[in-house]
Amino acid sequence: MLSQITDKWTVLIIRVLGRGPHRFNALRREVGEISQKVLASSLRDLEQNGFVSRAVTPTNPPQVEYALTDLGREFLCPIRGLAEWVLENHARIEDARSDYASRREGGTHTD
């Protein structure tokens, strides 16, 4: 369960839907570098787990809109907390990555 709800795409989709309901292509544009197949699969998983609702408007062609459920809106709190933590610690994480890369290049890293 934890791996499903902390997946990169899940976090990004929940964050975008936290601003309000979106149609598929609008959601895809806002999420960014996500394929249509991965977005569709992620939305199905989120709907199955109760985080997202899917509403179909019977037009021609049908319009499908995705929104957060109550459970999905509750999940926004920890997601926002995680996002804030990442923003606050971004420089420290980048420093650690640079240090790690330097050690790897210098041959001082042991596996």
> Could you name the CATH class?
Mainly Alpha
Q: Which strands sit side by side, in order, in the main sheet? A: 1-3-2
CATH topology, which one? Arc Repressor Mutant, subunit A
Question: SSE string, helix = H, strand = E?
Answer: HHEHHEEH
Strand content: 5-15%
Q: List low-confidence stretches.
A: none
CATH architecture classification name = Orthogonal Bundle
> What is the average of the pLDDT values?
90
Q: By helix and strand content, what is the structural category?
A: alpha+beta
* Count of distinct strands: 3
Largest sheet: 3 strands, antiparallel
Helix content: 55-70%
CATH superfamily: Winged helix-like DNA-binding domain superfamily/Winged helix DNA-binding domain
Structure report:
It is a single chain. By secondary structure, the chain is an alpha+beta fold. It has a single domain, classed as Winged helix-like DNA-binding domain superfamily/Winged helix DNA-binding domain (Arc Repressor Mutant, subunit A, Orthogonal Bundle), CATH 1.10.10. It has five helices and three strands; from the N terminus they run ααβααββα. It has helices at residues 2-5, 8-17, 24-31, 36-48, 70-106, and strands at 22-23, 52-57, 63-68. A three-stranded antiparallel sheet has the order 1-3-2. Strand 2 (52-57) and strand 3 form a beta hairpin.
